[in-house]
Amino acid sequence: MRILLIEDSSRLQRSISMGLKKAGYKIDVTGDGSEGLWYIESVEYDVVILDLMLPGLDGISILERIRQQNNPVHILILSAKDTVQDRIKGLNSGADDYLIKPFDFEELLARIQSLIRRRYNIKSSVITIKDLSINIDSRTVTREEIPVTLPPREYALLELLALNRGKVISRTKIEEHIYDDTADPLSNVVDAAICSLRKMIDTNTNQSIITTKRGHGYIIE
Prior knowledge:
Elements: E1 2-6, H1 10-22, E2 26-30, H2 33-42, E3 47-50, H3 59-68, E4 74-79, H4 84-92, E5 97-100, H5 105-119, E6 126-129, E7 132-135, E8 140-143, E9 146-148, H6 152-163, H7 171-178, H8 189-201, E10 210-213, E11 217-220
Parallel strand pairs: 1-2, 1-3, 3-4, 4-5
Antiparallel strand pairs: 6-7, 7-8, 8-9, 10-11
């Protein structure tokens, strides 16, 4: 899953991005409102975390502009502005959620996960595919009720395919949502990750739940 953080505090940038990367998310960061708007208009994000008091362009202006463009991206306001009127204004301007600083990181993570479930129109935190279960809140996987330990890269790949079940996901989209900008676009990192994931979740008696659509990408039927 890919997240954009628009926050001008370098301390919060570091702590939030470090925590989200550790949780397996790909994250882009900017401290400038105008640059943040450009990111939203240029890249497909699962969630945007938005401060309100920003240089360049304030958070409310960003919200109003992207909603005028009918951009459906889910926005979580993260702000020190804590009055009821502040929260009402933010939500009425198009935000999906509002979290007040200071905050607990686990709560931030839970709110992000809630917005991701909303984005993919799922109510339960558990996705079940045959005998495979994926809990997107605890980020755990079981197959035939046996726990499967996945590294962050493989888990993120499985979650992306599962949330888009029935849709072919291209290699480009996988790279955009999972890998950072240092990945070589000509490398076979996606194919290698798919191969690694199959070895971890498939058994000798189970046909792989991940199907290759040659020339197009991968799909969980």
